[in-house]
């Protein structure tokens, strides 16, 4: 998911996406521990996506507080 796409989402949608991505990351980590994961680069990609989602969510929350 691109940054541009994330910025179009609402805060609630971003939080839902964050929860889903964190669950996927946990599953990938568990699969890696058992040796079932073939594409280990997906773990890094999920971590970066989580960071991107959190950053944009925090920006939106700060903008809401500033305008209120």
TrEMBL record:
GO terms for biological process: translation. Keywords: Coiled coil, Ribonucleoprotein, Ribosomal protein. InterPro entries: Ribosomal_protein_uL29, Ribosomal_uL29, Ribosomal_uL29_sf. It comes from the Bacteria. GO terms for cellular component: cytosolic large ribosomal subunit. One of its GO terms (molecular function) is structural constituent of ribosome. CDD domains: Ribosomal_L29_HIP (cd00427). Residues 4-66 form a coiled coil. Belongs to the universal ribosomal protein uL29 family. This is Large ribosomal subunit protein uL29. It comes from Pelagicoccus mobilis. The gene is rpmC.
């Amino acid at each position: 998911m691109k940054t541009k796409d994330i910025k179009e989402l609402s805060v609630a949608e971003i939080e839902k996406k964050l929860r889903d991505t964190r669950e996927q990351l946990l599953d990938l980590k568990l699969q890696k521990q058992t040796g079932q994961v073939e594409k280990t680069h997906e773990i890094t990609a999920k971590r970066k996506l989580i960071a991107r989602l959190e950053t944009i969510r925090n920006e939106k929350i700060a903008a809401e507080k500033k305008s209120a």
